[in-house]
Amino acid sequence: MAVCSSALCFIGGFASYPANPVKFCRRPVRASGFCFQPLVSVPRLSVQGKAISGDGSSETNDSPLVVCFGEMLIDFVPTTSGLSLADAPAFKKAPGGAPANVAVGIARLGGSSAFIGKVGEDEFGYMLADILKENNVNNEGMRFDPGARTALAFVTLRSDGEREFMFYRNPSADMLLREAELDYNLIRKAKIFHYGSISLITEPCKSAHIAAAKIAKEAGVVLSYDPNLRLPLWPSAESAREGILSIWETADIIKVSEEEISFLTKGEDPYDDAVVRKLYHPNLKLLLVTEGPDGCRYYTKGFSGRVKGLKADAVDTTGAGDAFVAGILSQLAVDLSLLQEEDRLRDALKFANACGALTVMERGAIPALPTREAVLNSLLKSVA
């Protein structure tokens, strides 16, 4: 469906969808504090699409599905910025993990998403399952491991909102997902299959990742890749570079940051288009480079350019890149022809930039992910 104003035009569903049921081990799902807010029409915009019932839910769920594969964990975010982990007086418990963030982000924007991954059969694992369900994410592909804990990450926030991570996963449940535990039918239903590189670090999850991507590719699903470099998790910098690039040429859409370009090219200038083009493989449909508050760059076979970001007072940048990915994938899932039409792609990227900007204004990743209404309102204010 189209959402248009005189200055902006975006593609995507404008409805919430009931989550598919999920089977849990040993105990039922409990309610969570992170609830999806029904979307309403935004003043000054012409909205066309499926009928919305009185409670904000859609009468049917036929929105194109984005399946996100990988890790889901608990981020412990300090309540005070600019301090070391040892000096932080308290931490906010926030659900996270890049692929899960993208899945929730898409659902918050009114799209249809699913998450495939593994958590511990523990209180944190059940809490994360609750959060997916409450945010209308299909969690039929989620698995529980009775012998490993849910991954944890403690986040150090600098005064400018940038962060560093200290992980507890030795091993964590997400590392132990096996190929035999994959829901192949769910993968084949997807319009887009999205993943990162953390699931490539160790076995058996590495083999599960490769198998899942292969099934998606054979089914004609579009593959979306965000390397999401977390160097401390890899045995070495060289193994990280090799691992990330090992699946590079299978992806149809790739999103990287400036820092990741420098890392992958061994220190070359990430602002040089010739350097970026080295990462553009023959089968790639879209390469995106995020630049934080400055926005993003885009590269296709036929055109390239830059889209400015929105100004935001950064409190915590955790999840901003994932919100951006959720924003653009929510548009592309509905209409892949955006990849051939530069003006419409630029509009979709303005929407994605706004998703990222709104996310940095709160602590934590999933708690800060915006609704479509919030994004459209912020865009209207920016052009007013």
Structural description of this entry:
It holds the Pfam family PfkB. One of its GO terms (cellular component) is chloroplast stroma. Belongs to the carbohydrate kinase PfkB family. GO terms for molecular function: ATP binding; fructokinase activity. May play an important role in maintaining the flux of carbon towards starch formation. The chain is of the alpha/beta class and 384 residues long. The chain has a domain at 65-71 and 98-124 and 133-148 and 171-383: 3-Layer(aba) Sandwich (UDP-N-acetylmuramoyl-L-alanine:D-glutamate ligase). It is 28% helix and 21% strand. The chain has ten helices and 16 strands. The strands form three sheets. Strands 8-7-4-11-12-13-14-15-16 form a nine-stranded mixed beta sheet, with helices on both faces. The chain has a four-stranded mixed beta sheet with strand order 6-5-9-10. Strands 2-1-3 form a three-stranded antiparallel beta sheet. Strand 9 (152-157) and strand 10 (163-168) form a beta hairpin. Helix 9 packs across helix 10. The longest helix has 18 residues, at 342-359. It is globular. The protein starts with a strand and ends with a helix.
Secondary structure layout:
Elements: E1 2-4, E2 9-11, E3 46-47, E4 65-69, E5 73-78, E6 91-96, H1 98-108, E7 112-120, H2 123-134, E8 138-145, E9 152-157, E10 163-168, H3 184-188, E11 192-195, H4 205-218, E12 222-225, H5 237-245, E13 253-257, H6 258-264, H7 273-277, E14 286-290, E15 296-299, E16 304-307, H8 320-334, H9 342-359, H10 372-383
Parallel strand pairs: 4-7, 4-11, 5-9, 7-8, 11-12, 12-13, 13-14
Antiparallel strand pairs: 1-2, 1-3, 5-6, 9-10, 14-15, 15-16
Helix pairs in contact: 1-8, 8-9, 9-10
GO molecular function: ATP binding; fructokinase activity
Family: Belongs to the carbohydrate kinase PfkB family.
Protein name: fructokinase
